[in-house]
């Protein structure tokens, strides 16, 4: 069990003031009166409060370490994002410290709760795909830890900066490409329900179908995970239908590859009989046969933008919430060629 530390919530409760006021007082910002600041410091001392290194009003030294919280490091997308982050961090004299959650909400929560007392200057975080709540991140913000979310981000209950790609636009373009290639019965195998990334891509899929007056069927929209194996399972489920789709849009390339493997095992010609569209532009999309049409995500640029936004935040005395949205690009290959 973690030792119980005094937090700024305890100080706020003792003084009957807001957590935000305590945080500002500890950082000695201009919008807190000297009297309030003195009261906060007195109670902090009485409760043996130990500020973390991010309380910049009290500790002016930087450790030049930035945390990066990610679900996995083994796939192309996240390794490319980290490369972009590393480039920017290195240019500014910072090191990255990686924390892997294995896409587990429980592990994510434990890691984040233990980060409260570390000497990190800030955190870049991509949330677990199955997380149900994000209060542990609020604890970091309450303790003045600069935080930027990237790629998979929580809802707007956590007020901090975010860097994402335009998942809606990318999905809309992907489905529109399938339609313009001659497919009319398009299914979508997507990620976990409720995740913002998943919902944005699903909405782009649905809106493209509606724009072209094509059927929207609940059994052709399948929520699951992000793995190749889940792509195979989703494709098997689609093929069990008597009225099977003539195209599959997958939430990422790994699931698209899973669908291709299932189609090939069943002797179904990919592209000619059933088109397959991915989302990532993983190198495997050019190796698999037939080559995979996809939406190229700006992974490297997203990594750079995320790290730069966090470094900008470290330089400012007052926090301004920002959201950066990057555009993706359609890449047409053989898996969506009907002729």
Care to describe what's here?
The protein is an alpha/beta fold and 339 residues long. The protein has eleven helices and twelve strands. It has helices at residues 8-15, 19-26, 34-46, 76-91, 105-115, 135-142, 167-180, 196-211, 228-239, 253-265, 299-315; strands at 65-70, 95-100, 122-125, 147-150, 161-165, 186-190, 221-223, 247-250, 275-277, 294-296, 323-326, 329-331. The protein has a six-stranded parallel β-sheet, with helices on both faces. A four-stranded parallel β-sheet has the order 7-6-8-9, with helices on both faces. It has a two-stranded antiparallel ribbon with strand order 10-12. The termini are far apart. Residues 53-60 have low confidence and may be disordered.
Features:
single chain, Rossmann fold, four-stranded parallel beta sheet, 11 helices, 40% helix, 15% strand, elongated, HTH_LacI, LacI/GalR-like_sensor
- The appropriate CATH architecture of the largest domain is 3-Layer(aba) Sandwich
Main β-sheet: number of strands, strand sense, barrel status?
Answer: 6 strands, parallel
Which stretches are poorly predicted, pLDDT < 50 over at least 5 residues?
Answer: 53-60
Distance between the termini: 62 Å
Query: How many distinct folded domains?
Result: 3
CATH superfamily of the largest domain: Response regulator
Q: Which fold name corresponds to the CATH topology of the largest domain?
A: Rossmann fold
Beta strand %: 5-15%
CATH class term of the largest domain: Alpha Beta
Please count the helical segments.
11
Structural class: alpha/beta
Pfam families: LacI, Peripla_BP_3
Protein name: LacI family transcriptional regulator
Keywords: DNA-binding, Transcription, Transcription regulation
GO molecular function: DNA-binding transcription factor activity; transcription cis-regulatory region binding
